[in-house]
Amino acid sequence: MITSENRYAAFFAFSEHHFLLSSLLVLLLLQAWVPPAALAWNSVAWSLSVEAFFYAIFPFTLTRFSKFSRSVLFAVVIACWIAGIAVSAGYLALRPAGMPYVSSADWSGAVQFVKFFPLVRLPEFVMGMACGFLFLRSEHKPRLAFPLVGLGLLGVVLTTVASKFVPYLVVHTALPGPAFAAIVYGIALQPKWSAWLSFRPLVLFGDASYSFYLLHSFFVWPFFHNFKTQALRNQGVLGILAWTVMMLTISSLVYKFIEEPARRRLRPKKTVIPPFQPALSAAD
Asked: Is the pTM of this model over 0.90?
């Protein structure tokens, strides 16, 4: 029987037994390449390891994608979505007979590979690039924003409902990708009704969202997964609200006084980025 205690023992098992190796992998942003070590130190930082790989290959894929027509880009989106789902579905189909239903509590090596290994997550990145180029290569019509965002939100709702019936690994990877792409695409068209998103506190929270993501697990564990003191959790909505306010405050301060100053220091003083002007082919 999987209990909360042995679930989280498995969660940190590799880093406890291989502390030095895990530490080195985290510092080099390589932890996701060794899936059992992906959750070492700050568990959510496994995504940084995957993103570092994406950043490394981005300059090479950028040149290639700039030559694709819109029809090819649409095909890439569909192919990557299918490929992302196929990896998880393939694992579930080939898993050893008698293996229990895979859930978020399963931290076996094979499951960690499907969840964290950078090459497994590559279709999602390529799909995002294709959507980005589709946006650049298309005529921007704000009237399309509402149906795109509406369809995207519907997709998110359906995916959430389906998560009770669809295997966890399938939902965890590429399944909701097109829904989120539609939402981002629609908002990027900047319809008038989205003006409220420019409200300064919301812009600040958006800027601080990465800090929020990277720091939240340090505060999730004490307040929501502590087996002895569950004060905020036991307060229900009030506890969640208090935690949210706390996290928004902390992440905003980190963004303003650490993240943004560091970015200014790392950025070259004179950086000229020419505007991207895609050359539309006859096929477009």
From this structure: no
